[in-house]
Amino acid sequence: xxxFYLIYSVALWFxxxxxxxxxxxxxxxxxxxxxxxxxxxxxxxxxLWRKDKAVSTGIFVALILANMGASxxxxxxxxxxxxYLEDFKIMAIAFLIVYVVIRxxxxxxxxxxxxICIGSLPLILLITRFTxxxxxxxxxxxxxxxxxxxxxxxYPFVAAHFMAMPQNRYLFKNVRSLPVxxxxxxxxxxxxxxxxxxxxxxxxxxxxxxxxxxxFFLRCRNWKTxxxxxxxxMAGAFLVTLVASHVNDRVEIWLNLKAAxxxxxxxxxxxxxxxxxxxxxxxxxxxxGIGNLSPAYYKxxxxxxxxxxxxxxxxxxxxILVLAVGILFVKWMLYxxxxxxxxxxxxxxxxxxxxxxxxxxxxxxxxxxFVTAGVGFPWVSDGGTTNLMFTVMLAIHCxxxxxxxxxxxxxxxxxxxDEW
Amino acid sequence: xxxxxIQLICILSLLILVxxxxxNIRGIHKESRVLGKALWELEVRNRSYGTSEKLELSEGTYFxxxxxxxxxxxxxxxxxxxxxxxxxxxxxxxxxxxxxxxxQNVTHRSNxxxxxxxxxxxxxxxxxxxxxxxxxxxx
Lengths: 420, 139
Description:
The structure holds 2 protein chains of 2 kinds. Chain A is mostly helical. Chain A contains 16 helices and 3 strands. In chain A, 71% of the residues lie in helices and 1% in strands. In chain A, α1 (2-19) packs antiparallel against α2, α2 (25-49) packs parallel to α4 (78-104) and α5 packs parallel to α7 (180-199). In chain A, 45% of the residues are buried. By secondary structure, chain B is of the alpha+beta class. Chain B contains 1 helix and 12 strands, in the order αββββββββββββ. At the A-B interface, α1, α3, α14 and β3 of A face α1, β1, β3, β6 and β11 of B.
């Protein structure tokens, strides 16, 4: 695997470097430095965890995607490449810190820390909305970190905390109805929804809603409650579509692309979807060459429109392979060691769900088949906080699965005799 | 070397990497199919069939009764018995959803509000069945 990774890295670097001309020597050196950094990481992973495929495979996947991200950053601009280089350094440090904390300690399971996290997330949303100058959405920042990534870093710990609470109390004191811990998670998620609504951050709302829904369906044992929840979710989604103007616009584009293209109010937004359909055949299996897609069509071609950039510049084969790598990454994230406690299991599954739903939303919105959510693809998209979040989740998964679980054996003493 | 050849090398190496990742992940998923740490062992004995089976339970909730909708399915004749087991680290909480069970010579009838704490080696009897829970020990 290491051998083919090295070939892939060198080939992609050579391909990108030869396709994009006109950059100064500093930028070219930065790109070499970045690719070399990925290679050093791959050697380290190979040396440390060669036999432990449950850990090394996921890190290799992250490096493959990061390599593609560096190539797209290089084809976008010198600033984007330097930004990616800086992000890579932070991601590497964050991975090490989170991995060590999760692998060797249990402080992240402490109730006090979890309650601090529970309190912080809605506060972050509120404080950011009233202190940041921008209109809202994914560009809102809290101390230089985008709220989308920041809230999603904390959310798995919140979900794990609620799900690992002893399930002794039930709504209406009836064991068939909703357990209090699950009700608490749903209520908390609703508070986050309000925060997301205030911040106009509907991408975050969608990811949190989808992840919570899966956790709810996994944990809730009463089908009547599940049906009621589904109805409430649909009603909520309908209400948001009516109330939030830009969500309404996106739904209109989704429902009738042709009519949206003729509507002066929606034409610009619909153009990004139309461009893909009009030029799909021209893109072909091998693409139009790196650097071909113009930022005039896609201002966010290196973050929100990765699939379109890949299809246009790198071709359908590379796009399919990158998507396959992404799907395999989610499958890898869903693996869990048998000896995990309930907290770690839910922490792991929430991370996997978040990564999976972000990928799904990204691909769906790029292909015009879903509400355009404006979320990035893991490590391929340019986005410091979002990539930091994916790295933290990668480190959480690796740390959990390398944890020394307490061994259990049958308690055979005082075995009683057969007696009826 | 032309860009086309480099592009093909890139595609081929990525394709091989995808295959390697796929087989690695298939391997690790095969290794462990156990969900969660098994904390308790449930032994189910049936007097009329003369059978005995053991199950491992991790933290979570389980329905036990007749029919495929339950997590633990038992063949039963006569009065319908359905139990709700809330498995936790130190204790198991049992609720009788349908029918009646006998625990340590005390009969508990259907009550969705009641949660009966079950400890090590407590026996639950109903119809021809006897259930016994054993807590696994941490070494």
